[in-house]
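User: Hey, quick favor. My workstation is busy. Could you predict this chain's structure for me?
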Amino acid sequence: MRNLRLLGLLVAICGGLALTYAAAQKKPNQRPTAVQESAANPRQAEQNKVVVRELFEDMFSQGRYERQGQVFANNCTVHFGGRTVPLQEAVAEGKGWRNAAPDLVMEINQISANGDLVTVAWTAKGTHTGQGHGLKPTGRRVNMRGRSTFLVKNGRIVEATNEEYRPELFRQLGVSKTQALMFFAGERLVAALDPIIPDRLYALLQ
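Assistant: No problem, here it is.
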């Protein structure tokens, strides 16, 4: 009799474990994150790359800054190395360099998308023949390489992360260390005054 009770107990335990395993197998997986969903959607990844291509081909290479609202979200933030600037300031910075090098072209060497993140390896070429950012034209040819990453949501860039490019650019333009220090000092002054004075002063550096 005792053996029969023990056998019955073992059968009950095994049956319970089997039911628990079956329920776990039927339990739906956790809902994937937005990035996972996008990563699993090649079509969305390709659409995100189209947005970034428009940025390089239309705004950067052709100076069509009227496309800003179609390419960027209004609250987009832009990073250059260790500094972070609002979108309007980043666009003003780009316009200043286009004034300095009217033939500026930024080519995409490689582009890839991982979910909402689009990474671009690029080359920038131009000739310093114009006035921009307070630098006198040197006539020098600029050829730079860099890498940028863009976070794309709902067809707009909401965040851009770039390598800091200015030290290499200044080197190619022959800007002395003293001139570079004065440039950065002026930039810090503008940043300090910006919250006080309504109109943006960043344009003065163009």
